[in-house]
Amino acid sequence: MLQYIVLLGAAGQLIGISVYIKETIRGNTKPNRVSWLMWSIATLIAAAAEVTKGVGWAVLPIFIAGFAPFLVFIATFFNKKSYWKLQTFDYICGALSLLAIFFWWLTKEANVAIVFAIAADAFAAIPTYKKAITHPHSESVAPFALGFFNALTSFFALVAFNFAELAFPIYLVLLDASFTIIIYRGKRKKV
């Protein structure tokens, strides 16, 4: 019965993303398109790999963690002032992220796909980490704090406690917690 808590996590993350999307369309939050697109691709690959390894309800938070960034990526096109100006560094991180996905494709093994999906996601996070540290006012805490909650709910739905079930949720917990702390502290310093 505890596995159904993932539905609360998914709903929470969708609420956080809807706040982020609203702030993006208004131009108050400026997402890095490279990060949000690659977070979507890498995480959806991880979700697909987990499904092929038989992961059950624990995959829902991972799927939502991939679907939600895609919605943010789309939202950046609704207001020309609502996205972060990309620089060479952003493109390099995006290329490294794509390279990790390519290496997964070469192997065609689900656990390897999860490792490379984590690598791709981490490379995609670097530009947003940089931006969150230097310009915390351009970010919102909501999607990361609720993403943290969403990722935590995965642990209530684990069955086998193997690599396929544990790897991406642990990574997402660490990623979302670190973004939440960085953005929150950065915004407090600016006040």
Automatic annotation (TrEMBL):
<feature type="transmembrane region" description="Helical">
    <location>
        <begin position="112"/>
        <end position="129"/>
    </location>
</feature>
<feature type="transmembrane region" description="Helical">
    <location>
        <begin position="166"/>
        <end position="184"/>
    </location>
</feature>
<keyword id="KW-0472">Membrane</keyword>
<feature type="transmembrane region" description="Helical">
    <location>
        <begin position="89"/>
        <end position="106"/>
    </location>
</feature>
<protein>
    <submittedName>
        <fullName>Uncharacterized protein</fullName>
    </submittedName>
</protein>
<feature type="transmembrane region" description="Helical">
    <location>
        <begin position="34"/>
        <end position="51"/>
    </location>
</feature>
<feature type="transmembrane region" description="Helical">
    <location>
        <begin position="141"/>
        <end position="160"/>
    </location>
</feature>
<feature type="transmembrane region" description="Helical">
    <location>
        <begin position="6"/>
        <end position="22"/>
    </location>
</feature>
<keyword id="KW-0812">Transmembrane</keyword>
<keyword id="KW-1133">Transmembrane helix</keyword>
<feature type="transmembrane region" description="Helical">
    <location>
        <begin position="57"/>
        <end position="77"/>
    </location>
</feature>
